[in-house]
Structure formats: C-alpha cells, structure tokens
Specification:
This protein is of the alpha+beta class and 396 residues long. The chain has 10 helices and 16 strands.
C-alpha cells in the first residue's frame, strides 16, 4: 500500500532562490519538449520517443548557450521531458486536452527529485544539487528543513515514490509516496450511512451530527477580513489607473498592491486549510469507528451549483474533498466504500415503512410519513436509508 505524504518546507533565502531556479529549469525542459514535438509533427514526422529527446537535450547542455543547465540536477530535466511526452500521448489517446506550454506567471512551480538521491532524517530533507560546491559547509544548503518533524519515515528499508517539490505562491512543499504494509484487519462493526448537506456537513446513521464549519465565528471573521482586503486591493488599482493614448485603460501594480495581494493569498490559504483540516478531522473520526461499510450519496454538485442562492455555500462545503478523503481512508482500513445511485430517493423515502413521499420540499426539515405517521429529522432519515442501501448492496 502506497500512502502520499505532503510536508511544508522551511528553506532559507539561498535555498528559496535555488528551489525557484530548479522549478524554472523543469519548466524550460517541459516547454522545449513540447516545442520539439509540435515542430516535428508540422514537418510530417512521427512522435519522438522520450529516450531520443533526452539524448538530444544532453547534447544541448554541452553547448555554450545552454551550459547553465549543468548547474542543476539532470533528474529534473529528465522527468520534465518524460512528463511532456506523457501529456502528448494522453492527448492522442483522448484522455486529456492538448498540452499547453507552462507559463512563468500562471503555472505552478514544481520539479522532480530522484528517488535514489533524496534523503530524509526526521527534521530535514536532502535535495540534489542545490549547490555545486563540494565543501562541507556549502553542502549544508542541500539539506532543507521540514516544518513537521518525524512525519515522513526514513531509514534504509523505506521506499520513496515520485518525490516532487512544489510552490503554492506562499510556501514550498515536498510530496512523496511511501510504501506501507497493508492492514489485514477487516472491520466487523455495523455499517453506516452518511447524508451530506449545507446546513450540517454530515449526519450519520448512528446519530452523530457534524456542524457546518463555515457557520462558525472563526471562519466568518476570516471571511470578513478577506472582503476588506479585496476592497483595499480594488481601490488601490483604481487609484493607479492609467489611460493610454488609444483610450485603453491599464493598471499599474505598485509595491503596496503586491503587499496587499500577498496578505490576501495568505488569508485565502488559511481559510482553505481550516476547511480541509475540519474535513480531515471528521473523516478520521468516522474511520476510527471501524464500520464494515460506509455509504454516501453521489451528489450532482454541478447541478446544485446552478442555484445562485446556494452555490457559494455548496462550494465552501467541499464535498469532493470530503469524498476523496473518506475514500482513500476506507481503502487504508479495509472498509467497503459504497456510493449510492444519484437518483436514489434517500430523503423522500420513509426509513420506517419504505413509503415514498413525492411532495417533500427543501424547506421541510422534518420528515412526516403520511402512511405510518413516522416523524424524524429529514437528514437523519436520509442517512438511515443510505445505511439500508448499503446493507442491500452487500447482501446481493
């Protein structure tokens, strides 16, 4: 079993510069590969294999114009060329759109680290060729500090898969796949159904209710600060508006605007982290109960987002993040993860007698069965129906 781990880096100024340059080298190699493939296709040639392009790129590095590439790890460029070739193949197989050139401004800076060269020691990670000097005091630059100690396992028996260093605009991160032994224990506790919603994030069939984190005081205060910063940035742009000769309007980006935009980025990231952290806490707590199966609805989020009154609330809940976290945690713990059919009427069906109530409105927060007189919370009733759905799916 392979688990993906992502830890924030704490580089110094020299390391930050070198990391950014390494990401630039990866972008250069990727764009060079795409350009070669496009030129070759226009001239009537067939797809150039990854191996041939690597050899060509090695010769390019030997020229005086591109000798600067030798100051960086050759594994960065090798993997960037492979990634570009894979993107090109996926396009011709109809699996993805046509690959685009990576932009310095818009693309996410990232690069690959070779699995045989990367080293962890609990507090630091060693990245290849951040310095070309062989002096012992200079070699320390290769060791970058980790924000979370002992998070990534280390030792001779640990195998690392596809390590990548990336930059999100504020912080540097390292993500790596680590091979773990599979858990053989199979949970035997009663299965559960989970009803997701806007008023409450999740209602569980065992009676547990998880609140909507976006309604808490902490998140509301952060959103208020975000709005104020957005207004400040907007006003600064309006103050620095320049009218050109042809009537075209341009906006001058000052140092104050850059400072405010950086503050806004940090605040946006903090809000995202608060929501993701809460989602992790909820999913982990559910998995710790060790149910035999978990059932969730296949919600039509794209359709729900068309409602202009609810679209913001739906987007903030992050249903996809919740699904993804729950799914991979179920795989780690040998729990059956079942997705109920999109058209399964979990809310309109009575969990007591199975009666279908066609005229149930969204404003009706209590489910009142017209046949057996069963009265229950709407979301709790849906979670019980989802649990029954899972029991039928397993028995068939």
């Amino acid at each position: 079993m392979i688990k993906g781990l992502k830890v924030q880096l704490k580089p110094n100024n020299k390391q930050r510069t070198k990391l950014l340059q390494s990401a630039g080298v990866a972008r250069f190699a990727y764009n060079w590969t795409l350009n070669r493939q496009i030129e070759n296709y226009k001239n009537g040639g067939k797809f150039i294999p990854n191996g041939e392009l690597r050899k060509e790129f090695t010769k390019l590095k030997q020229t005086e114009e591109y000798s600067w590439l030798n100051n960086y790890s050759n594994n960065i460029t090798k993997q960037a060329i492979k990634d570009a070739c894979d993107a090109y193949i996926k396009f011709f197989m109809g699996e993805s759109k046509y690959p685009r050139f990576k932009s310095k401004k818009r693309s996410k800076p990232s690069f690959y680290v070779d699995t045989s060269k990367i080293q962890f020691n609990g507090t630091h990670v060693k990245l290849e060729k951040l310095t070309t000097s062989r002096k012992r005091n200079k070699q320390k630059i290769n060791w970058t500090r980790l924000c979370e100690h002992e998070r990534i396992p280390y030792g001779d028996n640990v195998k690392y898969i596809n390590p990548r260093v990336s930059f999100d605009g504020i912080n540097w991160w390292i993500s790596v796949g680590v091979e773990y032994e599979e858990t053989k224990e199979i949970p035997t506790n009663e299965g559960i159904g989970i009803d997701l919603g806007i008023e409450k994030l999740a209602v569980i069939s065992d009676g547990s209710v998880y609140k909507n984190i976006n309604k808490t005081k902490k998140v509301k205060q952060l959103e208020k600060r975000e709005k104020r910063l957005q207004r400040k940035v907007s006003k600064k742009y309006e103050m620095n508006k320049i009218k050109m000769k042809g009537g075209e309007i341009r906006y001058k980006k000052t140092n104050n605007i850059i400072k405010l935009e950086n503050q806004l980025k940090k605040l946006n990231q903090r809000l995202t982290n608060v929501r993701h952290n809460y989602s992790h806490q909820v999913t982990t707590e559910i998995i710790k109960r060790k149910p035999s199966f978990i059932v969730v609805e296949d919600l039509n989020v794209a359709g729900m987002m068309k409602n202009k009154h609810l679209s913001k609330a739906i987007q903030q809940q992050g249903f996809y993040v919740f699904y993804r976290q729950l799914q991979y945690k179920c795989e780690w713990s040998n729990i059956k993860f079942i997705i109920a059919d999109r058209f399964f009427p979990s809310s309109k069906t009575c969990s007591g007698c199975g009666n279908y109530k066609k005229d149930l409105k969204l404003s009706d927060r209590k489910y009142v069965c017209g046949l057996c007189g069963f009265v229950l919370d709407r979301d709790y009733n849906a979670s019980l129906n989802l649990k029954n759905y899972g029991q039928l799916a397993i028995s068939q």
